[in-house]
Design goal:
3 helices, alpha+beta, 27% helix, Viral_Tail_Comp_sf, elongated, STM4215-like, DUF3168 domain-containing protein, 6-stranded mixed sheet, Gp17-like
Length: 132
């Protein structure tokens, strides 16, 4: 399996298994949201990966997780984003022959959508992986 797919699979599994996050969103962690999603939820967004120069096979990843909430105000989206950050920051993820050497959450951005119903939290994740 590629480093990208292994990392994404591991991140989704970790978030689905997180009790704090589960209490907030009821297991709604997806690679892609279904056609009529239930709120709140977390889904994978954009991702980029590239081999690290001189990294001995290490791969650097930047990916986005997106929280969607329909709660009135930003409180719910902020709570979910905080739970995601706590679950992933510094975690070691091992999946399908790939291990994370470094996993950090350098940014989360919470804002109201133009529809005035949805609040988004965009969470940036940076990781470095290597073969086990």
């Amino acid at each position: 399996m590629s480093h990208e797919l292994a990392l994404q699979k591991g991140i989704l599994a970790r978030l689905k298994a997180d009790a704090t996050l589960d209490a907030l969103i009821g297991g709604r962690v997806w690679d892609a949201a279904p056609p009529d999603p239930v709120y709140p939820h977390v889904k994978l967004g954009r991702s980029q990966s590239r081999p690290m120069a001189g990294g001995g096979g290490a791969v650097e990843h930047q990916l986005t997780l997106i929280v969607a909430s329909r709660f009135c105000g930003t409180e719910e989206a902020r709570a979910v984003a905080a739970a995601v950050r706590l679950s992933l920051s510094g975690a070691v993820i091992e999946t399908d022959g790939v291990r994370s050497l470094k996993l950090e959450v350098p940014l989360s951005d919470v804002f109201a959508a133009d529809d005035r119903l949805t609040t988004w939290a965009v969470i940036r994740v940076r990781a470095v992986t290597q073969d086990i």
